[in-house]
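Feature request, filed as a ticket because there's no other form

It would be nice if the structure record came with a short human-readable summary line next to the tokens. Right now we just get the raw output. Example of a typical job, pasted below so the devs can see what we mean:
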Amino acid sequence: MEWIRSLKLAINYMEKHLLENISADEVADAVFMSSFYFQKGFKIMTGYAVGEYIRYRRLYMAALDIISSNEKVIDLAYKYGYDTPESFTKAFSRFHGVSPKQIKGDAKRIKTFLPLKINVSVKGGNDMDYVIEKMEAMKVIGYERKFLYETAYHEIPKFWSEFSYNCMNGKNNEQVQNVIGEFGICIEDNSKQKEFLYMIAGTYNGSSVPEGMKIFEIPALEWAKFKCTGPMPGALQSVNTKIFKEWLPGNPDYEIATGMNIEWYSNGDCSSSDYESEIWIPVKKKQ
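Raw output as currently delivered:
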């Protein structure tokens, strides 16, 4: 249950430091987790990105301050981490649906956002269809783009649509069309706390690298490979959620090894009910 315990500790940490300039990296460090998997798991478990959670909690607390005190908007803006009263008012109005001035004296108009409670069921974790497999290092080639943790769930499908459109319209040469698209790879970007790298990739065969493409070497690792059957993206997202809600919390033998995961896609109609894909998670034996 270390995974769930760490998420609960992370929420407690954020609550204690809500008025400080804390980052997702800092929270992950405080609970001894990889920032990449902490942010990914937090989003899956709660439905919120880490930055969203902190921002929403602050805006809720700011609303309580408005109705219970005579603090000025400019003071509240600085108190809750905004550079200007205007940026605070804009964020406040977007979240609560009314401005700070309008909400004064009317608590019914506050949008409630209380500290999250993490609950999980581990009973189905051992029933998931997966294998543990050691793989040698391999090189992949593909298109790389950076994504924000907060918006990745919406933006990555657009990246795939753009890639598919270019293939269908001949903007990618034949070699690229034949190679790229087997893998979708999420890679921790240690230089960017709010972003990670994502590649639409395929196995590199040693040929010249077309303009706009990059090569990435996946190290030799042990992988937990989870099978997904069904139309995309629903089938893959469902299994991904079960990994974080069931398999990781209840697994007595394995833990995540590094900040990376791979989506494998088969050939065929990805909207078909029997379409096959996989999620690969790098793992290591618990000490």
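Something like this underneath would help us a lot:
Residues 166 and 172 are 6 Å apart (CA to CA).
The chain has a mean pLDDT of 88.
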